[in-house]
Amino acid sequence: xxxxxxxxxxxxxxxxxxxxxxxxxxxxxxxxxxxxxxxxxxxxxxxxxxxxxxxxxxxxxxxxxxxxxxxxxxxxxxxxxxxxxxxxxxxxxxxxxxxxxxxxxxxxxxxxxxxxxxxxxxxxxxxxxxxxxxxxxxxxxxxxxxxxxxxxxxxxxxx
Length: 159
Known about the structure:
Layout: H1 2-37, H2 45-66, H3 74-79, H4 82-114, H5 127-130, H6 132-153
């Protein structure tokens, strides 16, 4: 059951990332055409592209954690004695979870401030931009917990 739900979440996140990337490329392409063909710059396109890029980055970070494609010190862990591998891996996951928790906490403060601010060109509340921070933080913690369970509780890191 958990595996099925996790796979659906993963497919949803991949789809969202694809749509956000497609939207960003389309908006930037539209801006280039508008500027160089029609000699008229769109006032909102740079801001939309920037905010989409932020969302893509944070969703991509969660997906990288899920796929274990984030930066890791695999060489160091490979040189450790077998008895130390799991504790070091667990410490790494727990440290990353703590940092994601700090990110969530700081993001909630940013969202509170962002509710009183609007973007320059789009005039949308800035909390829409900042909303991805706690969402990705929760996703990162979820995938780190999943990886921690698989690697340390099920014995997934035996080389």
